[in-house]
Design goal:
By secondary structure, the protein is α/β, with parallel strands linked by helices. Helices cover about 35% and strands about 20% of the residues. It has a single domain (about 55-240), classed as Rossmann fold. The protein has helices spanning about 25-35, 70-80, 110-115, 125, 135-150, 165-180, 195-200, 220-225, 230-240, and strands at about 10-20, 40-50, 60-65, 85-90, 155, 185-190, 205, 215. Helix 6 packs across helix 9. Bound molecules: adenosine-5'-triphosphate and magnesium ion (MG).
Length: about 240
């Protein structure tokens, strides 16, 4: 008989950094002139933040620069790994300078299947090398590789940050769709707050500065995707058009 151990879905986040000002001559001058203290203090980024992240949830971390998005993403990844979950960092998926079809799946058929899950359906793309793809195509190929690893959690910092926003939205849609198909949990962080409709997150963490933190739990996240301004079919077509 096999037993499955349930991994707890509660995460407690506490992150602070000790700050120690280097006491140079000029620093002391500034401190004196402006009347600021130089005591060592802890810089608290997260204090007792409780998050419930269920298996297969899509988590959208957003907020301004320096607010703590990367810190939160790293901490969640660390805690998930500690619980034995296998994580895949989407942007670190290693791509080799050989044709796509030669570096995915243990057979041609399997490789084609993995690529199809992210909308790479073009024979001319199969035989190209990663360096010959557009940013969006390359991202989708990375995604296919992430699916192949069978990871429980897909992690992406600066998620789609460098892409034009139309492509970013289409790929955000593709990512959540692929993840939901295989039951993977998705953790993404970006300062862009425009991916909500396409990512259909189950949880949104918006962080501004220390005290300003909003956690939204979206019930029925998947069915809400259906009521987004664009139908799934239109979005799918848009993804394919990007090739
Ligand atoms: N190792 C560290 N030591 C001290 N402070 C740190 C350290 N790492 C991060 N911080 C501080 O924690 C805060 C959050 O940093 P974080 O990298 O998570 O920001 P972010 O929201 O990802 O910003 P960005 O959008 O610019 O990537 C920042 O104010 C940063 O200065
Ligand atoms: Mg960051």
């Amino acid at each position: 008989m096999t037993t499955t151990t349930e991994v707890s879905d509660q995460y407690l986040i506490n992150v602070k950094f000790p700050t120690r000002v280097q006491r140079t001559e000029r620093v002391l001058e500034v401190a004196e002139a402006f009347g600021i203290g130089l005591d060592d203090k802890d810089f608290v980024v997260f204090e007792d933040l409780n998050l419930q992240i269920k298996r297969g949830d899509v988590v959208y971390i957003t907020g301004q620069s320096g607010a703590g998005k990367s810190v939160l993403l790293r901490e969640l990844t660390r805690q998930m790994q500690e619980r034995g979950l296998k994580t895949a960092v989407l942007d670190e998926t290693l791509l080799e300078p050989i044709p796509l079809i030669d570096q995915i799946g243990d057979s041609t058929k399997k490789g084609l299947e993995y690529m199809a899950t992210t909308g790479i359906n073009d024979a001319y793309l199969y035989i190209r090398k990663p360096g010959e793809l557009s940013d969006g195509q390359r991202y989708r190929f990375r995604l296919s590789k992430a699916i192949e690893t069978g990871a429980d959690v897909w992690v992406a910092d600066e998620f789609l940050a460098v892409l034009d926003r139309t492509t970013a939205k289409a790929i955000a849609f593709a990512v959540q769709k692929a993840a939901r198909r295989v039951g993977a949990t998705v953790l993404v962080a970006t300062t862009h707050a425009d991916l909500r409709d396409d990512l259909g997150p189950d949880l949104i963490v918006s962080k501004r500065f220390r005290e300003k933190l909003k956690v939204e739990v979206i019930e029925e996240a998947i069915s809400r995707l259906d009521s987004s301004p664009m139908t799934r079919e239109e979005l799918n077509q848009r993804i394919l058009d990007l090739s």
